[in-house]
Backbone:
């Protein structure tokens, strides 16, 4: 283990030198890859540096204890700290999900339940935006279809981790915490659209995809059909007088993405390409996992029939159907307090 740690420390030092070179940052894709690797290695190298320091201090204290017994207690304390650091290093060196350092593209789609489902999709969007805010992450809505009452038929949001998540032991990427959120979320409540006070049940689907690095997905421009059109708001009203909205169709797969959030056609096109790359990355990932027969429903198979969480709001309880974690403070959950659910999923790996 010590030899491996020394190699990782050397790699970390080289990455630090590379990232301080302005020429590296001229290639943003390369700088991003190097930065992610640097972030992955930093907690390991920091723990290793502390272990080296404590190990040296312990050896010195043991030697001095032979002449002065007062150093014996200090040596014992340092030995305990050294053992704690060794356990932490063992944990940090355990192979992790290779996607954990990645950020995500998150999609929410209204399902059965009509307008009430669209309103629930809006509630889920707010929940994830608030959760990201609690984590110190950055979010950006890339595309959305808004309904008349302010719900969402569908909405796509980019989630980027600006720093380490608050749950201990998790890497920096948003995927490390959000990867278990994909699936069907079902709600039972008296909706605002119900005049007789009857309880309705509806559902919305959540799709979580790891954001693809440009170096991981190659797209042939000849395989794309790019259409531009005017952005539209609720009810189809035009919100822009120029053809700034962009729709991209990937002809080999039939995947269609679009972005109309910016007045700049150039920026909308860049965002749509990022969405397409993530979709293609997810598609390739699914193919590989199918070939290896290692599909894990809770992580990657998020077909709309896979129900993961039930929001029984008329009875003030929300239950995760995979981990059986149940929370009574429903408003706190809808305000972004997902820690109990995500911590249980991380622990059980489901």
Residues:
């Amino acid at each position: 283990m010590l030899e491996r740690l020394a190699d990782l420390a050397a790699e970390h030092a080289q990455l630090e030198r590379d990232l301080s070179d302005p020429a590296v940052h001229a290639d943003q894709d390369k700088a991003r890859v190097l930065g992610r690797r640097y972030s992955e290695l930093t907690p390991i190298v920091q723990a290793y540096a502390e272990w080296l320091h404590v190990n040296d201090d312990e050896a010195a204290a043991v030697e001095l204890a032979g002449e002065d017994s007062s150093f014996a207690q200090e040596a014992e304390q340092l030995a305990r700290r050294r053992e704690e650091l060794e356990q932490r290093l063992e944990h940090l060196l355990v192979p992790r999900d290779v996607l954990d350092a990645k950020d995500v593209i998150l999609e929410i789609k209204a399902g059965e339940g009509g307008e009430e489902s669209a309103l629930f999709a809006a509630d889920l969007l707010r929940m994830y935006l608030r959760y990201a805010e609690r984590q110190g992450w950055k979010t950006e809505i890339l595309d959305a279809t808004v309904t008349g009452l302010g719900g969402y038929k569908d909405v796509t949001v980019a989630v980027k981790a600006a720093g380490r998540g608050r749950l201990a032991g998790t890497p920096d990427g948003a995927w490390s915490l959000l990867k278990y959120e994909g699936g069907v979320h079902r709600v039972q409540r008296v909706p605002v659209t119900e005049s007789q006070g009857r309880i309705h049940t509806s559902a919305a689907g959540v799709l979580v995809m790891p954001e693809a690095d440009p170096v991981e997905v190659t797209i042939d421009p000849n395989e794309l059909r790019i259409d531009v059109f005017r952005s539209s708001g609720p009810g189809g009203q035009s919100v822009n007088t120029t053809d700034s909205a962009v729709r991209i169709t990937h002809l080999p797969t039939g995947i269609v993405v679009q972005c109309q959030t910016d007045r700049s056609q150039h920026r909308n096109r860049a965002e749509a390409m990022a969405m397409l790359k993530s979709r293609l990355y997810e598609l390739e990932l699914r193919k590989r996992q199918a070939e290896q027969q290692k599909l894990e429903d809770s992580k990657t198979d998020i077909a709309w029939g896979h129900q993961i969480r039930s929001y029984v709001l008329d009875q003030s309880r929300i239950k995760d159907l995979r981990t059986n974690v149940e929370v009574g403070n429903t408003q706190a959950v809808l305000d972004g307090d997902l820690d109990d659910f995500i911590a249980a999923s991380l622990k059980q790996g489901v």
